[in-house]
Write a structure and sequence with these properties.
Layout lengths: L3 E4 L2 E4 L4 E7 L5 E7 L6 E7 L4 E4 L7 E5 L5 E6 L8 E8 L14 E2 L3 E6 L1
Parallel strand pairs: 2-11
Antiparallel strand pairs: 1-3, 3-8, 4-5, 4-9, 5-6, 7-8, 9-10, 9-11
Length: about 120
């Protein structure tokens, strides 16, 4: 089975930082992060096309979040700085074998992790 597993979630005060990790059971050319708050639609946060290293960020997180590849080829990270209370959500790792879609919408990704809770307190 193809598996994606997130780690690194937790609670942090506003203005703090967290780093999420996603470890996949195989290499994916396109990997992304989404988040979903209660009562809200799942929204794209960032993605990376690993073949060329190109990245995309939602406007709301640009300049604060960084998506990157880990030393292990099946691992990627999302470094989140200056976190805001409204960014409290379940954060999901998503992946595709080759298609790296724009816009960044959940139905366009075939593989998903179970999510990691991020809580930002004020």
């Amino acid at each position: 089975q193809v598996q994606l597993v997130e780690s690194g979630g937790g609670s942090v005060q506003a203005g703090g930082s967290l780093r999420l990790s996603c470890t996949a059971s195989r290499y994916f050319a396109c990997m992304a992060w989404f988040r979903q708050a209660p009562g809200k639609e799942r929204e794209g946060v960032a993605r990376i096309r690993r073949s060329v290293g190109s990245t995309y960020y939602a406007d709301s997180v640009k300049d604060r979040f960084t998506i990157s590849e880990g030393s292990h080829v099946n691992t990627m990270y999302l470094k989140m700085n200056s976190l805001k209370p409204e960014e409290t959500a379940m954060y999901y790792c998503a992946a595709n074998l080759g298609w790296c879609p724009s816009p960044l919408t959940a139905p366009r990704f075939a593989y998903w992790g179970q999510g990691a809770q991020v809580t930002v307190s004020s």
